[in-house]
Design goal:
Layout lengths: L1 H40 L18 H10 L1 E6 L5 E7 L6 E6 L10 H9 L3 E5 L16 H17 L4 E7 L1 H10 L8 E7 L5 H13 L6 H13 L8 H5 L6 E6 L9 H8 L5 E6 L7 H4 L1 H15 L2
Parallel strand pairs: 3-4, 3-5, 5-6, 6-7, 7-8
Antiparallel strand pairs: 1-2, 2-4
Helix pairs in contact: 1-7, 2-3, 4-5
């Protein structure tokens, strides 16, 4: 009886220790999940998807020109956020370029692209993604909730100009945003084509790569925990935020661009998104030697010749 009692006490102690360890592990995992959630989705925190190094750019004049020449536009999102955008009208034109910036950036820094499209005869709308610049929101949505914001921004253009012909353009997170937007069933038919530059295949895939690159960690269990935290706090998960799944639902003409030396959003993702796209009218452009977000600057002649030919074909 005494031996049995000792065994029972030993079992109780073991169960208590196991319970304590599980609580500690759960607490550590919750901490890690919350940390990764904030680290990845807080644009002000310098997280995984850092902004382009603006000091290395020479487009300050175009940034200033776009900021000074454009006017403020505002939109209330479906979930009540006040979103800001810069709008530069091209008098007499019914062609519009909606430009989506990358993580940690702002609309003014799209001045180089805005100038090009304006010169081509486009009015330009550059929305500030939620949690960026003057747009409300605590955390970035990496293109997923933003896809609904772009649908709403497009609707504002069509309300003002029913004859509008619209193209969507985005780089990095902006590229993922326009790909995700392309699959929305209620996107106005005024959108005629989409150009994405170095967008990722899904938020899960991008963060999995960054988790390994920055911390040397596998996806399980930290990324799973961070995705769960995002589901609870932001209403979406990393796996559902998929450009691949959205592209399977689009028939819009698409141009996919990627730099061959991009390791931040790996060059291999170009094949993934291109192959996933259901459109029968799709093109791809690889730029040798271009790092992340650097395709236009690495080979501007090839880049813009391809973009202009694509737009001439689909925008009249």
């Amino acid at each position: 009886m005494e031996k049995t009692g000792k065994k029972r006490r030993g079992l109780k102690i073991a169960l208590i220790v196991l319970a304590v360890l599980l609580v500690l592990a759960a607490g550590a995992l919750a901490f890690a999940g919350n940390y990764l959630f904030r680290f990845a989705l807080d644009p002000q925190g310098g997280g995984m998807l850092s902004a382009v190094d603006l000091e290395s750019l020479t487009l300050e004049g175009k940034y200033a020109w776009f900021a000074e020449s454009s006017e403020d536009r505002w939109l209330t999102s479906h979930d009540g956020l006040k979103l800001h955008g810069l709008y530069l009208p091209r008098e007499g034109s019914h062609k519009y370029a909606v430009i989506c910036h990358g993580y940690g950036s702002i609309p003014q820094y799209e001045g180089g692209f805005a100038a090009k499209f304006y010169e081509m005869g486009y009015s330009v709308l550059a929305p500030a993604a939620r949690a960026h610049e003057l747009s409300e929101g605590r955390y970035a949505g990496m293109g997923w909730p933003e896809r609904r914001d772009i649908v709403a921004w497009v609707d504002t253009i069509v309300e003002e100009d029913p004859q509008a012909e619209i193209m969507l353009f985005g780089v990095s997170m902006g590229g993922a945003t326009v790909m995700m937007t392309a699959g929305e069933a209620d996107l106005a038919p005024n959108v005629k084509c989409v150009i994405e530059d170095c967008g990722y295949s899904s938020v899960w895939d991008e963060f999995a790569g960054q988790l390994q690159e920055l911390f040397g960690l596998p996806t399980f269990p930290v990324l799973d925990a961070a995705s769960l935290v995002t589901r609870v706090r932001a209403g979406w998960s990393f796996k559902e935020a998929s450009a691949v799944e959205q592209l399977k639902k689009t028939s819009l003409p698409m141009l996919f661009i990627h730099g061959e030396d991009d390791t931040f959003v790996p060059y291999a993702m170009l094949d993934v998104v291109y192959d996933a796209c259901a459109s029968t009218d799709k093109e791809r452009l690889s730029i040798p030697g271009a790092a992340h977000g650097g395709a236009a600057g690495t080979d501007p002649e090839l880049y813009w010749a391809t973009v202009e030919a694509f737009l001439d074909k689909h925008m009249g």
